[in-house]
């Protein structure tokens, strides 16, 4: 063999081995196909995005005198049980508007409670794979709370709805704002999603149980918000209360949510300009998750956009210094910035600006950042997700759910075409 070719082949072998080794190491353990980027930090000392550590300098916040439970370095779905008084919040997506990125889905949070309840807040594009990899069976992922109808917050609803039949045999319940007019509300949106799925549904209705092929909307009437009624109770079951409150973002009909359960409180305002009103809604929160944006110059530079357009985008959003002012008023145990375009170079400038107005514990969310919350402590880690995860063990279908398939659709292929099918091999 030509010596150069031998060297090339050797290099190819070495490269293949180098790429395969992490997978071989993982395969030997209980983990599947998991590969965080090499660990590293920014010059300012913050972990680099996707390097397996959460982007914060305070990954553990403990109440004085409280005993701290030891957690493994990473959260591995399926390997930890929540305590009765514990809440776990995981970002299925941490970014915002398109273009979507492989390493960052749009907006989505999975919230799991120690009483067994599970909630999704927003379901942006590119997030449902993360959601399904978090070890919760799709049949239990049937309660979705949408903050507003920008597509970076609802664009993942089709793959979530597609868990019907295969897994979820009861309707998908979706909470969200009513609109300024009916066509701008969550009921119209979910009806349109259902209608756009007609071909898909008819193709499966004679094969799979049909119970999951519907969406039930739950509208929060935005006309009823007022200074006297700043919040509305959108959900109240099993000791969990979820309130909706309006936020300043784009058109009428953008909201945040406040979940209260067993002494724990999560506030998620999603996209919102900073205001004293939302700061008031965030008071008493264990975790307050709010959008955070780079500067107009940075946004214009990375998105190849005229500065005027970037400034127009910024008008609807919140800068780090502004978010610091909101947190200074709300005083959450942990303040979280989300909806940020992650980039190694943007991390230090972001925290520098954030720190000009706020000194409390803060976290910059990336995909699969997990926050465990109890009265004693808050622990932030990165999830090691199985990139080829199979669904978790299905729960038993609820009593009375009809698991039988329906009649075939009338939209059958022409027989002359079907008759040309090759004989099935043995
Ligand atoms: Zn957004
Ligand atoms: Zn938005």
Short description:
By secondary structure, this protein is α/β, with parallel strands linked by helices. 25% of the residues lie in helices and 21% in strands.
Mind explaining what this structure looks like?
It is a single chain. With 426 residues, the protein is of the alpha/beta class. It contains twelve helices and 16 strands. The chain has helices spanning 3-28, 128-132, 151-154, 157-161, 186-196, 198-204, 276-281, 296-302, 307-314, 320-330, 344-354, 415-418, and strands at residues 60-62, 87-93, 108-113, 118-123, 143-145, 172-177, 215-220, 232-237, 240-246, 255-261, 264-270, 287-291, 334-338, 362-364, 369-373, 377-382. It has a nine-stranded mixed beta sheet with strand order 1-16-15-2-3-4-5-6-7. Strands 8-9-10-11-12-13-14 form a seven-stranded mixed beta sheet, with helices on one face. β10 and β11 (264-270) form a beta hairpin. It is globular and about 70 Å long. One zinc ion binds next to loops.
**Strand order in space, largest sheet:** 1-16-15-2-3-4-5-6-7
Determine the number of helices (DSSP H or I, runs of at least 4 residues). Answer: 12
Name the helix and strand elements from N-terminus to C-terminus, one letter apiece. Answer: HEEEEHEHHEHHEEEEEHEHHHEHEEEH
> Structural class per helix/strand content?
alpha/beta
Q: Give the end-to-end Cα distance, rounded to a whole number of Å.
A: 44 Å
The main β sheet shows up as: 9 strands, mixed
Ligands in the model, by name, code or SMILES, are: zinc ion
What percent of residues adopt helix (DSSP H or I)? 10-25%
Low-pLDDT regions: 1-31
Q: So what's the overall shape? A: globular
Number of strands: 16
């Amino acid at each position: 063999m030509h010596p150069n070719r031998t060297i090339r082949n050797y290099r190819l072998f070495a490269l293949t081995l180098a790429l395969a080794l992490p997978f071989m190491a993982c395969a030997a353990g209980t983990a599947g196909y998991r590969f965080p980027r090499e660990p590293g930090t920014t010059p300012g000392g913050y972990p680099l995005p996707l390097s397996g550590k959460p982007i914060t300098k305070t990954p553990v916040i403990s109440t004085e005198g409280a005993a701290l439970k030891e957690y493994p370095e990473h959260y591995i779905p399926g390997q930890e049980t929540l305590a009765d008084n514990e809440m776990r919040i995981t970002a299925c997506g941490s970014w915002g508007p398109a273009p979507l990125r492989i390493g960052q889905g749009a907006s989505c949070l999975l919230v799991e409670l120690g009483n067994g309840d599970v909630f999704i807040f927003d379901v942006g594009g590119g997030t449902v794979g993360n959601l399904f990899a978090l070890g919760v069976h799709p049949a239990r992922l049937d309660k979705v709370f949408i903050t507003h109808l920008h597509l970076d917050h609802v664009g993942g609803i089709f793959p979530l709805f597609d868990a019907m039949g295969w897994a979820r045999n009861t309707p998908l319940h979706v909470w969200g704002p009513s609109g300024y007019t009916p066509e701008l509300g969550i009921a119209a949106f979910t009806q349109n999603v259902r209608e756009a799925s007609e071909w898909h549904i008819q193709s499966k209705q004679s094969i799979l149980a049909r119970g999951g092929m519907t969406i039930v909307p739950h509208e929060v009437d935005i006309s009823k918000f007022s200074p006297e009624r700043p919040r509305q109770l959108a959900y109240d079951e099993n000791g969990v209360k979820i309130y909706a409150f309006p936020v300043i973002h784009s058109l009428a009909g953008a909201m945040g949510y406040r979940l209260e359960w067993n002494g724990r409180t999560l506030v998620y305002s999603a996209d919102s300009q900073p205001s004293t009103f939302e700061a008031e809604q965030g008071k008493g929160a264990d975790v307050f998750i709010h959008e955070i944006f780079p500067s107009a110059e940075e946004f214009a530079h990375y998105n190849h956009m005229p500065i005027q357009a970037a400034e127009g985008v910024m008008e609807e959003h919140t800068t780090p210094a502004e978010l610091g002012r909101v947190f200074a008023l709300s005083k959450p145990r942990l303040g979280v910035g989300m909806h940020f375009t992650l980039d190694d170079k943007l991390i230090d400038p972001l925290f520098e600006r954030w720190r000009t107005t706020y000194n409390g514990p803060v976290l910059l969310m990336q995909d699969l950042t997990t926050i465990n919350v109890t009265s004693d402590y808050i622990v932030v880690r990165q999830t090691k997700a199985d990139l080829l995860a199979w669904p978790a063990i299905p729960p038993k279908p609820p009593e009375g759910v009809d698991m039988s398939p329906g009649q075939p659709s009338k939209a059958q292929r022409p027989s002359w075409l079907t008759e040309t099918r090759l004989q099935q091999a043995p």
